[in-house]
Write a structure and sequence with these properties.
about 325 residues, Rossmann fold, about 25% strand, alpha/beta, 7-stranded mixed β-sheet, 2 domains, globular, 3-stranded antiparallel β-sheet
Length: about 325
């Protein structure tokens, strides 16, 4: 509501070299996305800020503080049996976390036969680009696919902007023929996708495919994909500058794969963002898919499953020609 609003916050450094020194940051909030963050030099800090004393944190507090510095992950394991259990296990490598997602089967669905759960391990780099984290949209899309896993068998699925690839890897575990993709100019991201596959006993080039796709560009990688039944994506629309590039790619793929659709989860970040005009431009239409009942059998609310964010499940198809 205010075009210019600013405030100061003290920041305690957690690095060992700075020995917990306090500095002061100034944040200015502006209209739309025009906000700024700057750290002020210690030389201008008032004495009361320099002399702030913080009690030594406990081990539990250190862990909580560390988690606050990470993106909004979905955390916590469930004690009671359910269709999906989420937990995080830290690996011995200090450079990464490995999160375990457990998708459980109900025995009554298989005539009382007890079948093993599907476990997926996702490595997340602690200091890396956004593509190396599992954002809340991915578990939501994965849970939706899991509830419809029988329909995924032998389906040819392409995941756009795969990142840590949780939905695509789950689809492959359910019997789908999956191609995981991310931007062709991000070799480290593609390498991380390969690692995610290998960690889940999926060999790239044999059990699952990994390829680079440059959104908005009609390159050989698009023509070499082969037939596609379903395109999936989680949190691809994170920046308005890539909206049209994504829709150009989706439009091309849908035109060359009659009957296919693009199923994706979207996290609201700004009420000013819209793809309505772009949908019309590229002869696409978008429909909301209900998430009602997606958390059935889970000891967790849908709101908590979304990490406190507003997440939508949407479906894009070609607009029928008159």
């Amino acid at each position: 509501k205010h075009e210019k609003l600013g405030f100061f916050i003290p920041i305690r450094s957690s690095s060992k070299s700075s020995k917990g020194e306090t500095s002061l940051a100034f944040i200015r909030l502006g209209p739309r996305q025009n906000s700024s963050f700057s750290r002020l030099p210690n030389s201008i800090l008032p004495s009361f800020v320099k002399n702030l004393q913080f009690p030594p944190p406990t081990r539990g507090a250190e862990k909580a503080e560390k988690n606050l510095l990470q993106p909004p992950f979905l955390s916590g394991a469930q004690e009671k049996p359910s269709k999906m259990t989420l937990s995080m296990v830290e690996s011995s490598n200090s450079a990464e976390n490995i999160r375990k997602f457990i998708f459980g089967r109900d025995s009554h669905e298989y005539g009382g036969e007890e079948l093993p759960d599907v476990e997926i391990l996702i490595p997340e780099l602690r200091q890396a680009a956004y593509s190396s984290y599992t954002w809340p949209c991915a578990p939501i899309l994965s849970l939706f696919l899991w509830q419809r896993r029988e329909s995924l068998v032998n389906k040819r699925i392409l995941e756009l902007g795969a990142g840590t690839s949780l939905p695509g890897i789950l689809a492959a575990k359910c019997g789908a023929q999956v191609t995981l993709s991310d931007h062709a100019t991000l070799p480290k991201t593609l390498s991380h996708i390969n690692r995610c596959c290998l960690l889940n006993n999926l060999t790239p080039g044999e059990d699952i495919a990994v390829t680079g796709i440059s959104w908005g560009l009609l390159l050989n990688s698009l023509f070499n994909l082969g037939p596609i039944d379903l395109i999936i994506g989680s949190d691809c629309f994170y920046d308005p500058t890539v909206f049209e590039e994504i829709l150009v790619t989706v439009s091309f793929l849908l035109e060359h794969n009659p009957g296919a659709k693009f199923l994706f989860t979207y996290q609201e970040r700004s009420s000013d963002w819209s793809i309505e005009a772009l949908l019309k431009k590229w002869r696409l239409r978008c429909a909301n898919v209900s998430l009602s009942g997606i958390n059935a059998g889970l000891d967790i609310s849908l709101r908590r499953l979304m990490g406190g964010h507003t997440i939508h499940l949407l479906e894009i198809t070609l607009t029928p020609q008159n």
